[in-house]
């Protein structure tokens, strides 16, 4: 009997082939076959992730769908394909690699979990969490009876397994708590900030992860548990944890982890869900999962006085399923608790509940709108000149910091020391990488940017630069790190500006200057962020085109010697630019030149005359009133020079601006208004800058001056201010020069 059984078993696969030229089929050997499988999995899941990106779906959705497509539910219905690409003999190798990758991924998950944050969890969060667990668990018990009575009559209990494993698992955790932390803390102490972590420490930790997985597998608990426990015990402070993540995450998350989803997909056969009863059970399971989690969370959250919109959002977020659920389902299937049909129903439930989360949360949760509040000083232009000025300066890298600091020096003046308060926000992209999650734990609090309080040292050298400026110049600076996806980064910026009641947001231009003086794109997504901030900002906005204001280091107050030119055609943006220039002119080392362009009355061109007739009388009146007040102020301030230049066409405007090309900084409105501006070509290759600033940064205009483009706050953007942004989005990529 044993001999006959052995004869029917296929021989094990050899590792490598001799090559097709020797007559070997690579699909019959383990190594080339697993390489083909990995490539197929990675390509398919990445393509699906790209296709699902407009729906804002996490990559896990693409990986689950990819596994189902490659399995018997779709492509696997073709038996030739299934036996050629995923033959039964290859599955142990694939499962081994998948579980090895999963082992290290759970170690990374443990690294993301900071036990100290659990101690800081208040009663409100604890009660919501317990409700989100207990209520759906109770409903799940009822649903399990329905499944057991219909499609899972052959399911076995595993109670003895849990009884045996629980006591051994408790002993394992206790042993790890006493042995692990002292060793890891010693490694962390010997890993200095700014230096590479000793390779021996990294290698020893990874071997310990494997050993922990082996121990938990021996005592009857899944090997993943040991790896997770070890990750939790690694100290999160210092560079040691970051080095571990950097060494492991790309290989594990990029290559090995998708294999686990394919391994699950190969076990998922949607075709087993047949008939009204099976589909009814699927609907019941989905409804029970969503109802229990969402309703339980919302009810308790409301009892804890959480606003309904936030409570509902929290309920849907708690309803997401992912890797951990698939692990549990696979364990249940392997132990005989779930048959093929019940397993397929549970996998589809996890897929549906996670898929609906992102679009629903985006529809009901608008943090920028929810944070909307009323405050007075949303612009630089104001009647109370002595009131405190609040600025939110944003930066992505070290490149723009010297210019930003020198701009802050110019903005503080000396007439009213202490009026300037700066919120310096370091913008970082949030990805699905584990390292990004670690950064979030360090830099975020309650979902909003974490503003530094107190005098504790911050290891972020970008933030340290602003702290040093604060000490030297007695300017009040609050540094922060905001971590967001590029698609929603503008919401963090706008919400922070609203919360801190700032008068202006200063953003870096999405291009930087090369050594030859030309501009090249730093990152195209930053352009989208700037446009969204311009459209939704709760205050005025400035975009800084950096050509090195003051050089590559901070210029002290006594050494400041800048000439600033503000260009005025008319309209609120130009008024804001001139008002900012007047603020800077308070600094003893700054001289301000105001150039106002007036159309020659002798010009009788029909198109221009028509624009004059259609020019808004209220805007003209506001311009004249602003200029009249400013002239009066400039007459008493020797550092301000005011000139009115009569021009008849756009060429004369450009020639006049060119005479000021040797200044240090241009201040211009984003969308000027007035009859003379109508003669200037309004077509701009960078709509977020406007036509004047686009001209100033073009290769044809010779200058080394930086440019600050200003948009004054309006409750609702209209006219060219709005249409230029919308048209720019539609024509993205049309112009190579921007």
From TrEMBL:
Give the transmembrane ranges. Answer: 29-48, 60-76, 96-113, 125-147, 159-180, 201-234, 279-304, 343-365
Its GO CC terms are:
endomembrane system; membrane
**Biological process, per Gene Ontology:** potassium ion transport; proton transmembrane transport; regulation of pH
Q: What is its main location?
A: membrane
Subcellular location, in the record's words?
Membrane
Q: Name one Pfam family in it.
A: CHX17_2nd
Which parts of the sequence belong to the Cation/H+ exchanger transmembrane domain? 44-145, 172-361
- Classification via InterPro entries: Cation/H_exchanger_TM, CHX17_2nd, CHX17_C, CPA2_transporter, Na+/solute_symporter_sf
Q: Which UniProt keywords apply?
A: Ion transport, Membrane, Potassium, Potassium transport, Transmembrane, Transmembrane helix, Transport
Residue ranges of domain Cation/H(+) antiporter C-terminal in the record: 564-714
Q: What is this protein called?
A: Cation/H(+) antiporter 18
